[in-house]
Amino acid sequence: MMNRSLLVAVVLSVVVAGCGGKEKTPGTPSAGGNSESKSGSPAASGPGFKAKLLVDKTWKVTEASSDPAVDLNGDGKASTDLIASGEIPECQLDDTDMFHSDGTFEADHGALKCSPQERAKDVGRWSFNADSTVISTSLGGHESGLHVLELTETKLKESVNITRGNKNYTFVVTFAVK
Q1: Which residue, 149, 147, 103, 144, is CA-closest to 123?
Q2: Which tens digits make up the pLDDT trace of 69-98?
Q3: Which of 8, 37, 50, 169 could pair with 132 as two cysteines, CB 3.0-4.6 Å apart?
Q4: What domain count does the chain have?
């Protein structure tokens, strides 16, 4: 069984791209700059292009996995599919994220609340690293770096590595545009 702090770290990583990663330096996103072609349209690569794929869309978790298997909910059963197994509670699965070009992001906690004290929304900061392979976030004192595995108009797939005790976990989370 995993301890409560790992559960919190994973849920934050899944829902608001929260804590657990090593990469830091949140700030303003690389959302424009030199990534336009001479015609004024976005170039097919570079930080500006990736930011345009990410911003001003509502992203919702569709898949979450762990390697190795992990027991986050304390039921004594380690799982790799964190959604099908119920390792991530339903009250987290209706949450959405929206990244904005001004370097802020909103974590909307959805209709299902995990506790009566849970706020409707939280606002944090985000940025890409220089080559747009890591999204750094800062929210409520938690900073993280999430490795971008895939980013298209409708899909964001990222990973975060978390070490607890002597065990390393890789969590892969897929979001789709809602």
Answers
A1: 103
A2: 998 888 999 999 999 999 998 998 999 999
A3: 50
A4: 1
